[in-house]
Write a structure and sequence with these properties.
InterPro entries: HTH_proteobacteria. The protein is 30% helix and 28% strand. By secondary structure, it is α+β, with helices and mostly antiparallel strands. Strand 2 and strand 3 form a beta hairpin. The two termini are 29 Å apart.
Length: 112
């Protein structure tokens, strides 16, 4: 028996497993339930700007950009600002992403 394709770019491919909710169904007026590392990232961003370095080093979220992408696909209005120079743990780093939550926090995802 052939396995069903589970890739996020294919319609009806089990996206619920990737994002914690069913993105293939009808849009809801309520924000989706967020779980796992994406929930941690969302809570941190709700409390103010957070850099990719903070997510990776302080919270051991090694695929921070992937979690941000998941949240955006769910409809969360996350804004990215690339910082020219950041001092992190005594060293100057460049090209670091800083994430903030826009207003409104959540938008209905575009049906595709």
């Amino acid at each position: 028996m052939k396995k069903k394709n589970r890739h996020p770019n294919f319609p009806n491919s089990g996206q619920k497993e990737l994002f914690g909710h069913d993105t293939a169904g009808a849009a809801s007026d309520e924000p989706p339930t967020v779980t796992g590392q994406a929930a941690i990232v969302l809570e941190l961003i709700r409390n103010g700007p957070v850099t990719s370095l903070q997510l990776i080093v302080d919270y051991t979220i090694t695929n921070a950009s992937t979690r941000i992408t998941e949240l955006r696909r769910m409809g969360f209005n996350i804004e990215t600002n690339i910082l020219k120079s950041v001092t992190f743990r005594g060293r100057i780093r460049s090209g670091i992403a800083s994430y903030t939550l826009g207003k409104p926090e959540w938008l209905l995802p575009d049906p595709k």
